Amino acid sequence: MFPRWLAGIVSWRSVVVLTALASILQLTNLVLTWQLKQKGLATKEEIQIPGSGGQSQYSQPSKKHDLYLGQKVSDDHQLTLTRIARWGVLDGSGGYRVAVGAVRGATGQQREGVTLVTQCSLQLLHKIPSLVKSWQGVVSVAVFAVGNEVVTAVQAIHQLCRCHPEVHQNVTFSLVHPLGSPPDSHPHVFPSPTSNTHLKTASRLNPDQSLTAVDPCNQQRSDHLAWRNYEYEGIQYPNNLLRNTARKAAMTPFIFVVDVDMTPSQGLHQAFSTFAHEEGITGISSERKQGDKTVWVVPAYEIREDAKTPTNKDELLLMKERGDARPFYQELCLKCQKFTDYFAWERGGGSSKPGNEGLHTLYEVLWRDPWEPFYVAPASVPPYDERFRQYGFNRISQVCELHVAGYKFLVLDSAFVVHRGFKTQASLHPGKDTEQEHNRLLFRQFKVELKAKYPESSRRCY
């Protein structure tokens, strides 16, 4: 028999062990219950979880909702907002929070071909459907929102996906917002729209305006707001951060970075995919692969606001003869585009068919300052320098680095992009000169840094 004192110790230890086991079981039960609730909610709403790449159908707004500027906030919107709050990370400057792939299209995990990469403010989201329709492939968009615009942007994105099946199918949306916006103030529970919180937040939308003021399903409205008209005190539009964010969400070996108000020529996505396959270009980073140090330039044009979008090169050239089209930035900065050599492009190659069948390269261009072409590139090309914000030198800095890094620029024959509306001095915002001068000084520093980054390169950005 055990002594009484030993039996007492055994009994006491048994009680402790049993109590600990009970606590563990209770905690496990709570965790499992929470997980089941989360899974059940996601299943009920049938939303697309970022990175899943599976098929999904957007549900109708549930009966449970809050009000924000007179609109319903359904459970799928709330789940997206929660993901942004939990998964968002700070950018390199520490001033913006980034949520890559907050809403993924059904084909968001496609790993072949080329992704069109773009960025925009909340007010230009309505341009996405027409861009997707002309591209006919996967698209990655980074959306910039400030204050409670984050909530409105998420609503607008889900509305876009409901209105346009091709957007739901092909587009991945990422969100970028400055610190202090709702996901940072309320990391798990967003502010009630009936409170005064949104009235104190810098927002271009008046409290009596509804979501229809930025209705992404209404593509007939005029562009009354653009990123350069933002007046948020102390906040700059981080265009290069947005471009890099959209790039990170792309899964294909090639990317085509354009502005949201530009339209690629019909069939370009499929034509380049076929071209890359036939030429054995992989886009994978390896010195043994052909496409490593090459980007493929796509000439850019402007067309009159009321002109019909050309479907092929022949139509574009006829429009140019009539004065309805001209090289991009012809009035604002001709030297920024002239090295594309529009004269040679217009007289070489081409296609009388809709689209870009039989795409091939016409000639190579050696980069010269201040050329800033649009181009299809391997996804491994250097990122954009995120210090460049607002107007000036944000794209050319990356092109300059490609040149120093040893990339060659080949011009494609039948491919082009068009911008609706002629760019004029009157179309620029008042603060453009100040922003450009600030970025000019930054660009000088950037070029000095490239010498140290690529010490073996004999190329310079002059």
TrEMBL record:
Main location: Golgi
GO biological process: protein O-linked glycosylation via mannose
GO molecular function annotation: glucuronosyltransferase activity; metal ion binding
Keyword check for Nucleotide-binding: no
Gene Ontology cellular component list: Golgi membrane
Intracellular or extracellular location(s): Golgi apparatus membrane
Catalyses which reaction(s): 3-O-[beta-D-Xyl-(1->4)-Rib-ol-P-Rib-ol-P-3-beta-D-GalNAc-(1->3)-beta-D-GlcNAc-(1->4)-(O-6-P-alpha-D-Man)]-Thr-[protein] + UDP-alpha-D-glucuronate = 3-O-[beta-D-GlcA-(1->3)-beta-D-Xyl-(1->4)-Rib-ol-P-Rib-ol-P-3-beta-D-GalNAc-(1->3)-beta-D-GlcNAc-(1->4)-(O-6-P-alpha-D-Man)]-Thr-[protein] + UDP + H(+)
Topology with respect to the bilayer: Single-pass type II membrane protein
Entry keyword Transmembrane helix: yes
Protein family (similarity comment): Belongs to the glycosyltransferase 49 family.
Name listed for the protein in its UniProt record: Beta-1,4-glucuronyltransferase 1
Organism taxonomic ancestry: Eukaryota, Metazoa, Ecdysozoa, Arthropoda, Crustacea
